[in-house]
């Protein structure tokens, strides 16, 4: 096996191991960044919901107070406003979801499902927990969810303490069997937003493929450059030295000179062969008949 082939095999094996390590690191980093991007989206959606709730409570609800004596418009409920806003968003982006999941809601549409109820119970059991994240399978694919607790404040108790204290129009609209009995500072639900992972994962996979193509191209170019350098600086001079040495070994003193080299190792080898050649020439002259 030639020297160049051996160098290629060693270099190829080294670059292959490097490519495997780089691919693993790049893929892990890209997937992690994709999840961080999804998490930022989910956090932004929750912050938007909170802004809608605050806006509705501060500016919309006062405008509807007089009307509530005759009927109960749900548009004045902050939770309802936030939910309706994201229902409009889902018309264009059905893979996104938002819910004010409540254990005992006035509007049964907001009743927590089993997995949402588990989140609410977690917030109840651990008051220090302010946010929960995780992944789950949905009909539209795998999604990341972000949940934050819903605490009862003074404004909530105006409608959710007892049926007798609630606006009569609210009781007439939703009934008195649910949505009451809330306590101050109690965790009654969770704001839950679900953001799809598929799009971010697809972008990460596309970036990974591009990076791997560049890595392979750079490694291939590096092998070609190393091959060229090894051939010019090592293989070709060694082959030339070997050819001249073969000529001298059969007594052809007229063989060409050993080539010089900038590499110190090859220079030392050339000097050794030149000394051998000089010694051989002297020996040949001593053997010549006088």
Task: Characterise this structure.
The structure is a single chain. Helix content is 62%, strand content 12%. The chain is an alpha+beta fold. The model has no long low-confidence stretch (mean pLDDT 83). Strand 2 (132-138) and strand 3 (141-151) form a beta hairpin. The protein has helices at 3-64, 78-92, 114-125, 154-160, 168-174, 198-249, 264-287, and strands at 97-102, 132-138, 141-151, 187-196. The chain has a 4-stranded antiparallel β-sheet, with helices on both faces. The protein contains 7 helices and 4 strands. Helix 1 packs antiparallel against helix 6. It has 2 domains: 3-10 and 205-287, no CATH class; 65-196, Beta-Lactamase.
Strand and helix map with partners:
Blueprint: H1 3-64, H2 78-92, E1 97-102, H3 114-125, E2 132-138, E3 141-151, H4 154-160, H5 168-174, E4 187-196, H6 198-249, H7 264-287
Antiparallel strand pairs: 1-4, 2-3, 3-4
Helix pairs in contact: 1-2, 1-6, 6-7
Task: Give a quick set of tags describing it.
single chain, 7 helices, Beta-Lactamase, 4 strands, alpha+beta, four-stranded antiparallel β-sheet, 290 residues, 2 domains
Summarize the helix and strand pattern as letters: HHEHEEHHEHH
- CATH C-level of the largest domain: Alpha Beta
Tell me the overall shape.
rod-shaped
Give the strand order of the largest sheet, numbering strands 1, 2, ... along the chain.
1-4-3-2
Note the quaternary state here: single chain
Biggest sheet character = 4 strands, antiparallel
| Uncertain runs | none
Please compute the radius of gyration using only Cα atoms.
40 Å
């Amino acid at each position: 096996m030639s020297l160049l082939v051996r160098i290629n095999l060693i270099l190829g094996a080294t670059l292959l191991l490097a490519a495997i390590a780089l691919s693993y690191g790049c893929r892990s980093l890209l997937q992690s960044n994709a999840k961080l991007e999804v998490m930022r989206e989910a956090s932004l959606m929750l912050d938007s919901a909170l802004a809608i709730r605050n806006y509705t409570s501060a500016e919309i609800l006062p405008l509807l107070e007089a009307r509530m004596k005759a009927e109960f418009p749900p548009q004045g409920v902050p939770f309802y406003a936030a939910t309706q806003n994201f229902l409009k968003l889902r018309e264009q982006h059905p893979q996104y979801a938002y819910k004010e999941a409540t254990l005992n809601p006035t509007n049964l549409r907001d009743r927590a499902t089993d997995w949402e109820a588990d989140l609410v119970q977690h917030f109840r059991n651990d008051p220090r927990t302010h946010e929960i994240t995780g992944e789950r399978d949905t009909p539209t694919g795998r999604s990341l969810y972000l949940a934050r607790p819903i605490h009862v404040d003074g404004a909530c108790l105006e409608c959710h303490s007892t049926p007798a204290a609630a606006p009569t129009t609210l009781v007439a609209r939703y009934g008195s069997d649910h949505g009451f009995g809330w306590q101050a500072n109690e965790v009654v639900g969770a704001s839950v937003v679900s953001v799809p992972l598929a799009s971010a994962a697809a972008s990460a996979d596309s970036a990974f493929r591009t990076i791997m193509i560049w890595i392979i191209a750079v490694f291939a170019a590096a092998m070609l450059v190393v091959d060229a350098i090894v051939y010019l600086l090592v293989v070709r001079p060694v082959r030339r030295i070997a050819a001249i040495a073969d000529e001298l070994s059969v007594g052809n003193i007229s063989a060409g000179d050993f080539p010089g080299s900038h590499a110190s190792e090859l220079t030392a080898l050339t000097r050794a062969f030149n000394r051998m050649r000089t010694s051989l020439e002297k020996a040949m002259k001593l053997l010549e008949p006088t």
